[in-house]
Amino acid sequence: MSCFSRIVVGPAIGLSLAFAALLPSNASEGTVVFADPSRIAAIGGSITEIVYALGEEKHLVARDSTSNYPKAALDLPDVGYMRQLSPEGVLSVNPTAILALHGSGPREAVDVLKKTSIPFIEVPEHYSHEGIIEKVRIVGKALGVDAKAEVLAKALDAKLTAAEQQTASIKERKRILFVLSMQGGKILAAGRETAADGIVKLAGGVNAVEGFSGYKQMSDEAIITAGPDVILMMNNAGPPVPDDELFANPSIASTPAGAARKLIRMDGAYLLGFGPRTADAIHDLAVSLYGAQVKD
């Protein structure tokens, strides 16, 4: 038995936006439906998951490397990491359409893809309950299955609402420090407007970092000032950081989380995907944080 608390968690049980952000590059204004969805390249794990959740996976001809769920998706050709795409790699699968999550890149590669004759829809990413529902409706619209998308959206809406309500009565909120990496002893942590910030809030926690947006390397003083109760990390992203190495960091050791050796690790795509499985991820994270205080 380890001398510290370490929890490893796995999976458990009206659209409003600017049309310009959605339009295929060769489509007329207002068009958000693929004319030919027979061979879609899906870029972004949540996009691929939504296509499968809609039962429309027969349209997929390729995925990016973040699309590792469901397991069947791994049989599709991999066109590369969504933030390091090459136009040649995406076009090599001869797609009739491209569905890409906002943030795909690099920007130059996306610009090249948008200038081809292949319709390209960029799906907005908002790290919120509403953002998930929006993605489902946009993907469903693109595939021409609006009715199926609405059924899925309503089911996910109810499930997300229930997951959020499980921590509604908790008074003492845990302060969470999400550590993306630790290179050279420096902590790279998640600030506002990140997937980590979003999931922590949905699970009834408080992001211990408040002074910046995005991911940033933090000073020892800033980490101590943040005073997290719990450290949250992904268990399958980049070089692993051993538990002992994390807690040996002087700044981490000086926090309540370090003193109590409180660490939660979760699968990155599951925790930060903001897709069909997010309600389950909210529940699992909440239980890891609050135990029996979580109301089923």
UniProtKB/TrEMBL annotation:
InterPro entries named in the record: ABC_Transporter_SBP (IPR050902), ABC_transptr_periplasmic_BD (IPR002491)
Segments forming domain Fe/B12 periplasmic-binding: 39-293
Top-rank taxon, per record: Bacteria
PROSITE patterns recorded: FE_B12_PBP (PS50983)
Keywords attached to this entry: Signal
Signal peptide: 1-20
UniProt protein name: Hemin ABC transporter substrate-binding protein
Organism: Mesorhizobium qingshengii
